[in-house]
Structures are given as C-alpha cells and as structure tokens.
Amino acid sequence: MDKRIRLIVTDGVFSMDGDIAPLPEIVALAKKYDAYTFIDECHGTGVFGKGGKGTPEYFGLEGEIDIINSTLGKALGGGTGGYTSASQEVVDVLRQKGRPYLFSNSIAPAVVGASIEVFHMLAENQDLITRLRENTTLFRTQMKKAGFQILGHDDCPIAPVYFGDARVAADISNELMERFSIYVIGFSYPVVPKDQARIRCQLSGAHTK
C-alpha cells in the first residue's frame, strides 16, 4: 500500500443484478487505507434516497464520497449528457486533462435547463420517489409470492426475474410484449454469466398499481 493515490471504484447500483453497493463498508475501507472513493451513480440518481440523490443519501453518507459520476438520462430523463461531482481540485484536473471533457461538444442548453429543473422538482416534491418505492415493494413481494426468483436488493426498482435458460427468458420476454404490451428485456450470456438468463423488469413511479 505504498502508492501515492489509492482509489476505490464502484457502481452505486448494479444494473444487471439489482444489487446495491455496500457503501458504508466501502467508505470504512477507504478511511482505513487512506483511499479516495469514486461511485458511478447512473442507476441511483433520481431513484435512491429520500430526495433522489442516490446511494450516498440512501445510506446517509452524503459528503463522504469523493467523486460521484452520473448521467442526466435514465431517471432524470434528459437523454444526453452527464456530470461529475467532486472537489474543486478534482474538477480542475478533469477540465485540464480529461479527454472526454476536452474533445466532446457541450450538451444542448435545453437539456441543461430541463435537467436543472428536474433536480428542483425532486427537491420540492418526493411523490414520484415514494410511489416508486411502493411499486418496487409491491412488485418484488407479489412476484416472489407467485413463485418467481427475483434477484437483487429488495429496495431496488431494477428487479431481474431469474430463469436460467436463455431461450425460456427470450420466449417469455417476446410473449409478454406480443400478448400484453409489457416491454421487458431478456438478458443472457455474454451479458450475464452462462445459464443465468433473466428478464430485467424496471419499476417506475409512473406505474399504477
């Protein structure tokens, strides 16, 4: 451990399994070994925590993560662009040295404005996040009661339904779309490990019971 800079990198939410990173343990490890922490919050922003600020808020660790990378798409709905939140020193290095920053065009002003407004909306009203939490609990509970194996953390709205067999997962996914207009995707090897095919369901605060 004689390196000048040590960095622990993780997703906040793992999109294929519906798992949540154990941030309290990761932060404790970083403090023990004098390391920085970096989390990719693309699947946590707008979803986790009381105000949708992601897994740091979910675990009560706001201000404890050194670098947060996320997207303005996915839950925020912007479609393009993303951001890095960090200390001024880290931001300065990225602006001077980061090739994706230096050699990319800026995102459209309309997307910036809409994204800022989404953050304001999340701060002012948590109804959608509350409904998302309720929908996630309902779906996961009832699917398990019906005999399905649901992967991941019980609080995660990414709810993979495990089938194992790739053909079965694909056939069920196709039939759900054709017969019921339910759009869910079957994932199999090499996207997930061999013989661990699943259909990834994603709950939304816009879904009605």
Quick rundown:
It is built from seven helices and ten strands.
Task: Walk me through what this model shows.
With 209 residues, this protein is an alpha+beta fold. The protein has 2 domains: 7-124, Aspartate Aminotransferase, domain 2; 127-202, Aspartate Aminotransferase, domain 1 (Alpha-Beta Complex). It is built from 7 helices and 10 strands. It has helices at residues 23-32, 55-58, 88-97, 99-102, 109-124, 127-145, 166-180; strands at 7-11, 13-14, 19-20, 36-40, 67-71, 82-85, 149-150, 158-164, 185-187, 197-202. Strands 1-4-5-6 form a 4-stranded mixed beta sheet, covered by helices on one side. Strands 7-8-10-9 form a 4-stranded antiparallel beta sheet, covered by helices on one side. A two-stranded antiparallel sheet has the order 2-3. β7 and β8 (158-164) form a beta hairpin. It starts with 6 loop residues before the first strand and ends in a 7-residue tail after the last strand. The model has no long low-confidence stretch (mean pLDDT 93).
